[in-house]
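Protocol step 4 of 6: record predicted structures for both targets in the notebook before any analysis. Target 1:
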Amino acid sequence: MTTGVSFDLQGKVAVVTGGYGILGGSIGEGLAIAGARIAVLGRNREHAAAKVDEIKASGGGAMALIADVLDETGLRAARDEVLRAWGSIDILINAAGGSVPGSRTDTKPVFEVPYASFDQVLALNLHGTVKPSLVFGEVMANQKRGVIINISSMAALRAMTGVPGYSIAKAGVDNFTRWMAMDLAHRYGDGIRVNAVAPGFFVTTQNKSVLINPDGSYTERSKKVLAQTPMKRFGRPDELNGAIQWLCSDAASFVTGAVIPVDGGFSIYSGV
């Protein structure tokens, strides 16, 4: 017998790391519209509170969690705070990440990148996904249900100038996604799923300076990106939300270990 699929997230509890950033904030807002309660996790109390106020003003339920994704003790305290308030954790979105000053090779060879900068960008993007997954995923293991969604990147799939550490970290996120999906399903059953979305090019606070000139025109890097994007434009933050909601919902109940590109065709275009 065939049954209908459900995209409903009513009553679910979602933790969004980097939850007040451009992409993380939009993801949280989208999940709230779908019925989930949103725990906005980040280091800046003022920014987290502002995003919570936005979600509440739109009729959603939200709370702020002040923690660093690289601080296991802080993450465990945040996890316990969510459980005291709402009793469960159904969804984890690992949206914290980004480039790190000094780690790019736009104006220097890779040999001149300080190891400290390389380690910093690797930690933020890879360890900053692994640690929350282990801390919040432990709750899901005990519940025998839950969804983890990691944020990958086109840089994990194709070699890109300027971002060696970021690219390596995101490739690690892809592998970690597949490994966790396999391991959690083996150990705890089919109620826990781990997937990732790989955004194409979206203009965010962190990358705006390399994509947009001060006068609002496109940089040379932007022009190269758009030439490789069949849709010939950058993505809008809300265009991640449909894939995220699908992966979080029962409509994707047999989907685990997948990395879904949301990229306007960037990943499939040969340039010819």
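Target 2:
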Amino acid sequence: MSSARPAGLPEIVAHRGDAEHFPENTLPAIEAALRLGLRHVEFDVQVSADGVPYVIHDATLDRTTTATGDLRLLRSNQLDGVDACEPARFGERHAGTRLPRLSAVAGLLAGEPRALAFVEIKRASLAHHGHEPCIARILDELAPVREQCVLISFDARACALARERSGLPVGWVFEGRPESHLTVLRELAPEYAFCDQEPLPPGAALPAGDWTWAVYEVTDAEQALDLHRRGAALVESMVPSRLLAGLDRGLAGTPA
């Protein structure tokens, strides 16, 4: 399957990998998304007490692993054996799936040179450890694949600092309607702007700017095509295989 979408279709960003079929933010989820032929993946990064970046959404381990506790207060020797199998969703199906270090995901990306990763620096770790230390450690781990990475965050200051320290493209993620964030967008001038599909006014075009629009929490092909017509080049989904299949059915001329 081609990694590039045909003209007139949006590019899909696999949100936390193929999070429908595999535990989110794990190596199997990211590998599965890339096997679908998708070029774009997104994953989250939190930083441990001893400064090691891990790929996980929450600051706490409780929701997605078999362990408990605040990752930011735990050291890497306590985290490397944690099972991130998402037992609440999958039971024992993916037991033994390790909580991945960012360095392990970077190693995966190194073997997929066409992949582009949106690496989200989580606000919880920024608040706990400070912007400079978090960003420095994350950049260190991404150094071998830096040209394949876009650093993104809900924290606009983190985006600006990441660009200043690395020269890499950045993406600002925000909540609410885009028009209420245009002042910050124009000042920050990110390469990418990420917004939730939920608060978008029906049918309205996304505001024009020098950034590329990415809209997240997209679940079906009709919605993805509508957003693309309104200016979204990228649609981010936690059900990427389902969305891809819907878009491909639509391209073939059958109901999506």
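Step 5 preliminary note on target 2. The radius of gyration is 18 Å. The chain has a mean pLDDT of 95.
Proceed to step 6 after PI sign-off.
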